[in-house]
Specification:
globular; 37% helix; 5-stranded parallel beta sheet; Rossmann fold
C-alpha cells in the first residue's frame, strides 16, 4: 500500500473557535485514509517585507516554507472579511511565494473552500484565493465548488454534522480532492 499523500491546509481565520477551522476539522475527519492532512499555522508569520528576505529570514517564515514545500498538495480554507480574504491568509500566500523564483506553492495541486455565517458562503473570498493561485502556478480543483453559508450552524452541540446534505457534500469534495491531488502530485 502506498504511503499517504502529504497535504497541508492553510486556514485563513486565526480565531481559536473559527467556523472555518471547525469546517476543516470536519473535512479532515471525513478524508480518505490515502490523505495525511495537517493544518499549518499561519498566525505567527511576520508580515512579508522584502527587507527581511536576507540570508537568514525570520524563523517562522523558514518553518512555514519548509513544511509547505514538503507537502504534495494544499487545501486553502478561508472566511470572508469585507468581501475578500483575511490579511493573515494573504500574508501566508506571500511568504510562501517568496523570494521570487523560489515559491513553495508552484505546481502543487490545490483546492479552495470558504465559509461564512452569511448566505453566500464567502464566495468573494474563495475567488480571491483562486486568483492568487493562478499566478502561483497551482492547478486548482474546479468541482465540486465549496461555498459554505450558515457556517455557525454546521455542527451540533456534540460536534457532529448538523445537516446531512452538507456532510455528504463534504464527503464528495474530499473524494474529488483526493483524486485531483493523487493525479497531479
Amino acid at each position: 500500500m502506498p504511503s499517504p499523500l502529504d497535504v497541508v491546509v492553510v486556514v485563513g481565520s486565526l480565531r481559536r473557535e473559527s467556523f472555518t477551522r471547525r469546517f476543516v476539522e470536519g473535512l479532515i475527519a471525513l478524508a480518505p485514509p490515502s490523505l495525511q492532512i495537517e493544518i499549518v499555522p499561519i498566525g505567527d508569520l511576520p508580515l512579508y517585507n522584502q527587507d527581511l528576505e536576507t540570508s537568514s529570514p525570520p524563523a517562522a517564515w523558514q518553518t512555514f516554507r519548509t513544511r509547505v514545500k514538503r507537502a504534495r498538495a494544499v487545501l486553502f480554507a478561508t472566511p470572508e472579511y469585507n468581501r475578500t480574504i483575511p490579511g493573515a491568509l494573504k500574508n501566508a500566500i506571500d511568504v510562501g511565494s517568496r523570494p521570487y523564483g523560489s515559491s513553495v506553492w508552484a505546481g502543487k495541486p490545490a483546492a479552495v473552500v470558504s465559509t461564512s455565517p452569511g448566505a453566500i458562503g464567502a464566495f468573494g473570498a474563495n475567488h480571491c484565493v483562486r486568483q492568487s493561485l493562478v499566478f502561483l502556478d497551482m492547478p486548482v480543483l474546479q468541482q465540486p465548488e465549496i461555498y459554505i453559508g450558515g457556517a455557525d450552524k454546521l455542527f451540533d452541540a456534540s460536534g457532529q454534522w448538523a445537516n446531512p446534505a452538507t456532510r455528504e457534500l463534504a464527503v464528495k469534495f474530499m473524494k474529488a480532492f483526493e483524486a485531483w491531488a493523487v493525479r497531479l502530485a
